[in-house]
Design a protein that fits this description.
The complex is a heterodimer.
Chain A (H helix, E strand, L loop, with lengths): L1 H14 L3 H12 L4 H8 L5 H36 L18 H14 L4 E3 L4 E3 H4 L31 E3 L6 H9 L4 E10 L10 E11 L4 H16 L5 E8 L2 E10 L8 E2 L2 E2 L7 E10 L1 H6 L8 E8 H9 L14 H4 L4
Parallel strand pairs in A: 1-4
Antiparallel strand pairs in A: 2-3, 4-5, 5-11, 6-7, 7-10, 8-9, 10-11
Chain B lengths: L2 H7 L10 E6 H4 L3 E3 L3 H11 L2 E8 L2 E8 L9 H11 L7 E3 L23 E2 L10 E7 L8 H9 L7 H13 L3 E5 L7 E6 L5 E3 L5 E3 L5 E5 L4 E4 L3 E2 L12 E6 L3 H11 L4 H6 L8 H16 L2 E2 L4 E3 L7 E6 H8 L5 H10 L3 E5 L2 E6 L10 H12 L18 H19 L3 E2 L5 E2 L1 H6 L20 E2 L4 H11 L7 E12 L2 E13 L3 H14 L5 E5 L12 E5 L2 E8 L2 H6 L7 E6 H4 L17 E9 L6 H11 L3 E10 L2 E9 L7 H16 L1
Parallel strand pairs in B: 6-9, 21-24
Antiparallel strand pairs in B: 1-4, 2-5, 3-4, 7-15, 7-16, 7-17, 8-15, 9-12, 10-11, 12-13, 13-14, 18-20, 19-20, 22-23, 24-25, 25-29, 26-27, 27-28, 28-29, 30-32, 31-32
Helix pairs in contact in B: 6-9, 10-12, 19-20
Chain lengths: ~350, ~675
């Protein structure tokens, strides 16, 4: 009986070609209800004198089966290991790859950089009243920025206090809105928005993006303005970049500055390979405008200028993005004409 | 074109709208300024504390400075103006700087004349103080048209002014040297020896010096002679009819200031720009006319042998009182954040031309006339001290961080927009940004009435005349413009639409629009995937016919619970045809603003049901008018044991569905579900 089972196993094992079949065979012979266990159960009904010898026989067969199963498993796995072959140099199955607009990526990075020093991103109307776009920014009715050549006007009735409806020409329109929203300082705002001006050529688009930083608190100084812009410049453009402020003029800041950043092409030297650097002005690139918030603007926002002071800046998203990426675009209108051959390059 | 071009061309942070650059030369500057600073040192130091010297270009034995002048500092826009700045700034960098001559102290009495030659006269009508603060002139006779000295001709050329003849060249040279534009008329061409400054009449025409015929509005300033001829487009360009010719020997020199806004307006509407106009539009200091007239008459005498031909005609109704500003010493150092000694503060201000009276550290600061238009209060004084002290000497310190709460809805909005963009990008979609303004033509193609959207009053192109009431027309244009460039086109845009509201700003509503050349089903899959990514439950696609862009039989309205959030479907063939799109387009328009309220950013955990899950596939006939969603509702209503329903596929009229059964409390058997399946089939087959 035992021998018959052994022979039967050896035969079946010789027919086995996969590890799955091998597992079946193992269950059939060594499992709880397998052949070996049923032989062992029969031992009880055997004469005690024969029982010992019979038992030893069964155990021998069990041992043999166990070993043969192990050997066969090794043989089968070795064969699989040897046979399987892939041309690992073939390309994988492609996953879809879309793209994000250059401006989107820049906005996300700018937001992240300012969030780390406690600035919250805000959003204010693109279609705005003259009141917030100009009046509250210390720009009187005669300011040239308010004329037809510099600002888009909307065909809607004029309001007594708010004035005409315009497309906001800058993110600065959010300054007084944010002061009003908060009621009183501290203010830590980064306002990113579409802006509009009536210029349309290879270097201007009638719609563009700005990001505006506004910080108002007790004892805010020019040192804080410099510190923050320097922090941004190093985070966004690289640790080795330096900034400088140049005196400038804006209606809504006093003092006002233009910020320059060292040119990455000539390392701020203004000269590259013995030639004048074509990218920068004597080693410096203009980043944008900034200054200490004018007291008339603070007053317009209900903030007491004897108690609080602040700084503000407004930079172009498209510009910093291109300065960073070294993307040389000779006609920036391509940003907004939806050409797939342009869009798909930014992912 | 390079990056540089782009960078200099887009102005940010607003209102550098009427910036100007001037060119002067290093040697010319040194006629006013005694200094040991080189041209490049001047560039570096001036840029840090005063006017930005954008470029220095070596030329022969000289250097040309290209200098940016901010709108508030027109007083710097001359050789003298730069010299005055340099005198203050260079010593901060241990460079020698002293004014060699100060022409501003000269008065009319310095004009050297001989009573015998003052025979000529001109009648000048009383001026309107609204148009000009000061209107001054003098006649000079017996001008000999000598050759312009080479050094003058060269300097003018280097500074972008074309030499013409000695008289005109002197006029331009004085403008650049002292910052006061002036005009020289051929005296004999002024009819009736009489002039009058007045506003033009609508439709009047004149020919300017450059030979252009200008048609005037009723708001331009012109000068008319005694015979009613217009001889000057005031502040912008002289008239051809009174220009200096080689025969001219008697000239009338006019020096004046004008209302800046009027000059700018005329320059814009007539398209006539001139260097003089860029000066006048900033609003000039009328006090400068006196020394400038002395300088020009002296130069005419020296170089043309001209004689003073008349008295000085000087109308000056706009004389301004001397301005004085009070400021506290402590305020100055506090705002700067730097402990600067009082004597140094005073020294800086005095070297800038201010005069200081110090009473207990309360300074009374008298402003020189040429700074009247940019000095208003203490903050202006602080700026002057700070810039000369040097911003580069101020340390970089990030302010202490404090908590300012971001409105929750904005926080969610930015999160949703970011998740949406990232998800769609990974599904192969390309983000596009279009202008917020579109054309009338585009609105018409999309069947949108032009009375609906907001309109720009002063657009610069028909392409951008209306504020978008929908993103769909733009996206259809994107598809049309990219046809043939890629086999599959898949775009999305997230942007505002502008919904007009009476007497209020428009509602700027954030939308997501997707346009794809793929079929309905994969696009719907992407939307379902997106809403699942945002953890939104209870999303329904209800057949609808109301959307104007989408074919009725392919159209579904999207709902979350019972809130409409958008539409999906195939664009009407009539519309794709109008956009000249050659294939079917699937479009989705979702109001992101509404979706936002239902978003959860984290997942929810449900413990796995440990009891047996049994599935059963069925295939039945589905009529064309039947909706799968209704079938699912019917199946679920039949037994609480139905745990979910899955669509497998369709073949011709047959639809195959897999139904899962599970009990929440015990294991169920195949036998238990058999009657339920039969009932389902019976119900669906009816």
């Amino acid at each position: 009986m035992t021998e018959a089972i052994r022979q039967q196993f050896v035969h079946k094992l010789s027919l086995t070609t996969s590890t799955a079949e091998l597992s079946q065979l193992e269950i059939a012979y060594l499992g709880r209800n397998g052949e070996i266990n049923s032989l062992l159960k029969q031992l009880k009904s055997i004469e005690p004198t024969e029982r010992k010898q019979k038992g030893a026989e069964i155990n021998n067969v069990k041992k043999e089966i166990t070993e043969k199963l192990l050997a066969k498993k090794k043989e089968l796995l070795d064969a699989v290991n040897k046979d399987q072959s892939i041309d690992v140099t073939l390309p994988g199955i492609a996953t879809p790859r879309g793209s994000l607009h250059l401006v989107t990526t820049a906005i996300e990075e700018i937001t992240r950089i300012f969030e780390k020093i406690g600035f919250i991103r805000m959003k204010y109307p693109e279609v705005e009243w003259e009141y917030f776009a100009f009046d509250t920014l210390n720009m009187d009715k005669n300011h040239p920025a308010r004329d037809d050549f510099e600002t888009f006007f909307i065909d809607q009735p004029e309001q007594p206090k708010m004035g005409k409806m315009v497309l906001t020409p800058h993110t600065s329109s959010g300054q007084v809105r944010e002061m009003i929203r908060l009621g009183k300082p501290p203010v830590r705002m980064i306002n990113i928005s579409k802006c509009y001006r009536p210029n349309w050529d290879a270097s201007h688009t009638p719609m563009f993006h700005q990001f505006e930083g506004l910080c108002i608190d007790k004892t805010i100084t020019i040192a804080n303005l410099k510190g923050t812009i320097s922090y941004f410049a190093k985070e966004f453009f690289g640790e080795d970049r330096e900034i400088r402020l140049r005196p400038f003029h804006f209606q809504f800041t006093e003092p006002s500055f233009e910020v320059d950043i060292t040119c990455d092409i000539c390392d701020g030297k203004g000269i590259i390979n013995g030639q004048k650097c074509k990218i920068c002005k004597s080693g410096w690139l203009e980043l944008g405008g900034t200054g200490m918030v004018h007291e008339n603007v603070l007053k317009a926002g209900g903030v007491d200028p004897t108690e609080y002071s602040g700084w503000a800046f407004g930079f172009g998203v498209e510009r910093v993005s291109m300065m960073k990426q070294g993307v040389k675009i000779d006609d920036i209108r391509i940003l907004y004409n939806g050409d797939i051959r342009f869009l798909e390059q930014f992912y | 074109m390079t990056l540089e071009f782009y960078i200099t061309a887009i102005f940010v942070f607003s209102n550098n709208f009427i910036d100007m650059n001037i060119k002067i030369t290093y040697n010319w500057l040194r006629e006013y300024l005694d200094t040991d600073a080189t041209a490049f040192e001047l560039q570096k130091y001036l840029s840090l504390c005063g006017p930005s010297v954008e470029r220095v270009t070596p030329v022969e034995d000289d250097f040309i400075f290209d200098i940016e002048i901010t709108t508030n500092r027109i007083d710097m826009a001359s050789v003298l103006g730069i010299a005055q700045e340099a005198v203050v700034i260079l010593p901060q960098f241990k460079k020698k700087a002293k004014l060699i001559t100060q022409p501003l102290t000269k008065t009319f009495s310095d004009i050297k004349s001989d009573q015998n030659t003052k025979q000529k006269t001109i009648a000048i009508d009383a001026i309107d103080p609204e148009l000009t603060a000061r209107f001054t002139g003098i006649i000079m006779a017996s001008c000999k048209q000598n050759k312009t000295p080479e050094i003058i001709a060269k300097r003018l050329t280097w500074c972008d002014i074309r030499p013409i003849n000695i008289i005109v060249d002197i006029s331009n040279y004085i403008m650049l040297a002292l910052g006061q534009p002036n005009h020289t008329f051929d005296y004999d061409s002024i009819g009736g020896a009489k002039i009058k400054l007045r506003l033009s009449k609508q439709g009047e025409t004149m020919i300017t010096l450059d030979g252009k015929t200008i048609t005037l509005s009723d708001e331009d300033m012109v000068i008319e002679d005694g015979k009613g001829k217009i001889i000057d487009l005031a502040g912008i360009m002289g008239g051809k009819n009174s220009e200096i010719t080689e025969k001219t020997s008697t000239i009338f020199i006019l020096m004046e200031t004008y209302d800046g806004k009027k000059i700018r307006q005329t320059a814009m509407t007539t398209g006539q720009r001139s260097i003089a106009a860029t000066y006048f539009e900033k609003g000039l200091d009328p006090e400068r006319i006196e020394p400038a007239l002395v300088a020009i008459t002296t130069m005419m005498q020296d170089l043309t042998g001209a004689k003073i031909g008349s008295e000085v005609f000087d109308q000056f109704p706009g004389k301004e009182a001397k301005k004085s500003i009070s400021v506290n010493y402590k305020t100055i150092v506090d705002k700067m954040g730097v402990e600067l000694e009082k004597v140094k503060v005073i020294a800086i201000l005095e070297s800038l031309g201010f005069s200081i009276t110090d009473t207990n550290s309360e300074f009374s600061v008298k402003v020189p006339s040429y700074r009247n238009h940019d000095m208003f209060g203490p903050q202006d004084i602080i700026e002057e001290v700070a810039r000369i002290y040097g911003y580069h000497n101020i340390p970089n310190i990030v302010q202490t961080t404090t908590m300012v709460k971001q409105p929750k809805d904005l926080d969610i909005r930015f999160t949703v927009e970011k998740m949406t963009r990232t998800f769609l990008k990974h599904q192969g979609y390309h983000e596009v940004m279009n202008y917020s303004m579109i054309s009338k033509q585009l609105l018409e193609k999309a069947d949108i009435s032009i009375s609906e959207p907001l309109k720009l009053v002063n657009t610069i192109s028909e392409e951008i005349e209306y504020m978008r009431p929908s993103l769909i027309p733009s996206l259809l244009s994107n598809i049309a413009n990219n046809q043939g460039k890629r086999a599959v086109l898949e775009f999305f845009e997230i942007a505002h639409i502008y919904i007009p509201q009476k007497n209020e700003l428009p509602n700027e509503e954030s939308h997501l629009v997707i346009a794809s050349t793929r079929e309905y089903s994969p696009v719907k899959g992407v939307i379902e995937g997106l809403l699942a990514e945002l953890h939104i439950e209870s999303v329904h696609f209800i057949p609808s016919t109301t959307n104007q862009f989408v074919s009725p039989n392919t159209q579904a309205s999207l709902y979350i619970h019972d809130k409409a959030i958008g539409v999906i479907g195939m664009v009407k063939p009539q519309m794709t045809d109008r956009f000249t799109i050659k294939q079917p387009i699937c479009i989705v328009d979702i109001t992101l603003q509404t979706v936002q309220q239902f978003v959860r950013v984290s997942s929810r955990y449900v413990p796995p049901n440990p009891f047996a899950l049994i599935s059963q596939d069925i295939s039945i006939i589905k009529k064309i008018t039947d909706h799968y969603a209704d079938m699912v509702t019917k199946i679920q209503a039949i037994s609480p044991l139905v745990s979910s329903v899955e669509y497998l596929n369709s073949y011709e009229q047959k639809i195959s569905i897999r139904i899962y059964f599970q009990d929440k409390e015990k294991n169920i058997s195949e036998a238990e579900i058999k009657p339920i399946v039969e009932k389902i089939i019976a119900t669906l087959s009816n």
